[in-house]
């Protein structure tokens, strides 16, 4: 079998199954595990998958720059942003992470809301400039231009001095085994700091992030209080997260407990 054919079979399996286990995949094709591992290394170098111990996971499509992410699933991000904005209660102090979905959250906060938004995203801060009742605290640091957010020691220290009610977190991958991931080490550290300084975390995840993984782990899936997804999210992807114990809320629908089906009923 040609290398190109093997690569295509691997990518097809990732789209179909959400993962490739090198040993089992090699056995199914009558090939050695070493051959499959070499193929996985080559595909990872091309940015087509994320290698993990024993195999591979789909590469997060959301690793493109900020301008590129604005073109990914825009309708989903509006739905998620609107649902996240409805979770903010009067008088609360909330962290709002960077990213295109976070900007939608800011834009959909009710005009009558009085609350405090703490953010390390200039884009989120600018979206709230004309909101009459929202106090904005902008965290500074080194500007990470790829995501248009502040990172580094100064940002981490400032975040640690605040106790927030809720953190609305952006990620590039949400996977049952790989957990919450992102594409940059410093950004992952900032996101961990946001979670640690908050009473609860809501992860905002459009469809391309579900079942995908990036190189840097933010936290295990269990540390997300809620994973907020769009109505267009794949039922299989949502079911996999719920089976792993995540509390997944579909924007526009009532919250469901971990393990519940789409009718809100727990398995018997």
Automatic annotation (TrEMBL):
> Any coiled-coil ranges, and where?
none
What GO molecular function terms would the record report?
Answer: DNA binding; DNA-binding transcription factor activity
Residue ranges constituting the HTH deoR-type domain according to the UniProt record: 3-58
Q: Which InterPro entries match?
A: Carb_Metab_HTH_regulators, DeoR-like_C, DeoR_HTH, NagB/RpiA_transferase-like, Tscrpt_reg_HTH_DeoR_CS, WH_DNA-bd_sf
Keywords, A to Z, come to:
DNA-binding, Repressor, Transcription, Transcription regulation
Name assigned to this protein: DeoR family transcriptional regulator
Give the organism the record lists. Pseudacidovorax intermedius
């Amino acid at each position: 079998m040609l290398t190109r054919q093997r690569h295509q079979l691997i990518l097809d399996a990732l789209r179909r199954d959400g993962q490739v286990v090198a040993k089992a995949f090699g056995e199914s094709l009558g090939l050695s595990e070493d051959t499959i591992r070499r193929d996985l290394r080559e595909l990872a170098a091309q940015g087509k998958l994320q290698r993990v111990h024993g195999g591979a996971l789909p590469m997060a499509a959301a690793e493109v720059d900020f301008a590129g992410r604005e073109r990914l699933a825009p309708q989903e991000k509006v739905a998620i942003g609107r649902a996240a904005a409805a979770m903010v209660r009067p008088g609360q102090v909330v962290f709002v992470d960077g990213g295109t979905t976070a900007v939608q959250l800011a834009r959909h906060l009710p005009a009558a809301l009085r609350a405090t938004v703490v953010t390390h995203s200039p884009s989120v801060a600018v979206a709230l400039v004309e909101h009459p009742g929202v106090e904005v605290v902008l965290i500074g640091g080194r500007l990470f231009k790829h995501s248009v957010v502040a990172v580094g020691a100064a940002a981490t220290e400032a975040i640690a001095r605040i106790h927030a009610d809720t953190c609305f977190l952006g990620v590039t991958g949400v996977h049952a085994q790989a957990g919450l991931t992102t594409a940059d080490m410093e950004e992952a550290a900032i996101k961990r700091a946001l979670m640690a300084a908050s009473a609860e975390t809501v992860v905002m995840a459009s469809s391309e992030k579900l079942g995908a993984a990036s190189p840097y782990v933010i936290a295990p899936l269990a540390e997300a209080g809620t994973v907020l997804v769009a109505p267009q999210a794949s039922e299989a992807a949502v079911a996999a997260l719920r089976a792993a114990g995540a509390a997944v809320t579909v924007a526009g629908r009532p919250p469901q407990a971990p393990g519940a089906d789409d009718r809100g009923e727990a398995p018997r």
